[in-house]
Amino acid sequence: MAAIARGAGSPHVADVKSVYDFLEAGAEAFERDEFSTIVARVEAVGPDHFGMELMLPENSFRFYRHIQERMKGRLGQDPEGKPPPSSGSRPEPSDGYGLLRSQLIAR
Questions:
Q1: How confident is the model at residue 5 (pLDDT cuts 50, 70, 90)?
Q2: Domain-embedded: residue 47
Q3: d(Cα 80, Cα 63) in Å, to the nearest integer?
Q4: Which of 12, 54, 73, 90 is packed most tightly, with the most Cβ within 10 A?
Q5: Residue 64 is assigned to a structural domain of this protein
Q6: Is residue 7 pLDDT above 90, yes or no?
Q7: What is the pLDDT of residue 82?
Q8: Res 4 pLDDT > 60
Q9: Quick check: is 72 in a domain?
């Protein structure tokens, strides 16, 4: 990556391997009035799984809000997130998240 940055014409390239080298290269980059590139070599590790744990309260609230935001503009809901009134005499069953079955099918 550092060679690519040099080849692309970056005037200042730092190839760092430790946190201390990174801090030093960052401080030097801030002192300059030119473009700087810092290439940090880190271990290739990641989470043991990819996904969202919906059983955690904050994640389930975030997911709910995400669905509500996506549904607002598409299905004619008012700003409070209330669905439009049903044309039938009795209310439609809900999925528990405030979305009506007809709205889910329409999507």
A1: very high
A2: no
A3: 17
A4: 12
A5: yes
A6: yes
A7: 60
A8: yes
A9: yes
Three-class SS of the chain? CHHHHHHCCCCEEEEECCHHHHHHHHHHHHHCCCCEEEEECCCCCCCCCCCCCCCCHHHHHHHHHHHHHHHHHHCCCCCCCCCCCCCCCCCCCECCCCCEHHHHHHC
Judged by phi (left if over 0) then psi (alpha if -120 to 50, else beta), residue 51 lies in left
pLDDT tens digits for range 22-60: 999 999 999 998 999 999 988 877 767 666 666 677 777
Please state the pTM of the whole predicted model.
0.42
Q: State which residues form the domain around 78.
A: 57-84+93-106
Q: Which residues pair with 100 in a beta bridge?
A: 94
- The answer to the question of residue 9 being in a domain is yes
Amino acid of residue 16: V
Number of domains in the chain: 2
